[in-house]
């Protein structure tokens, strides 16, 4: 999964999305967002915040 897509021309980012970005995509598929300890060790505050919020949303019954 790419980190972003340009909505004007469809160009994809040259690098992968963070664990947090992947957690949001997982939540939207109706699955529980999870990450391995190895993945967590490499993530920054913003990515971890997205993961935490996605897990909370899943726990509360979001799609």
Describe this structure in words.
By secondary structure, the chain is mainly alpha-helical. It contains three helices and no strands. It is globular, with a radius of gyration of 12 Å. It starts with 18 loop residues before the first helix and ends with a helix.
Give a short synopsis of this structure.
By secondary structure, the protein is mainly alpha-helical.
Give the amount of beta strand, in percent: under 5%
Q: Detail the poorly predicted runs.
A: none
Radius of gyration: 12 Å
SSE string: HHH
- What is the arithmetic mean of pLDDT? 92
Number of helices: 3
Q: What features would you highlight for this structure?
A:
3 helices, single chain, 63 residues
How is the secondary structure organized here?
Layout: H1 19-28, H2 37-41, H3 45-59
Helix pairs in contact: 1-3
């Amino acid at each position: 999964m790419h980190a972003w897509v340009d909505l004007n021309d469809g160009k994809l980012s040259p690098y992968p999305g963070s664990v947090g970005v992947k957690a949001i995509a997982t939540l939207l598929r109706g699955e529980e967002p999870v990450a391995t300890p190895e993945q967590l060790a490499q993530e920054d505050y913003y990515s971890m915040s997205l993961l935490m919020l996605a897990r909370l949303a899943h726990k509360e019954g979001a799609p």
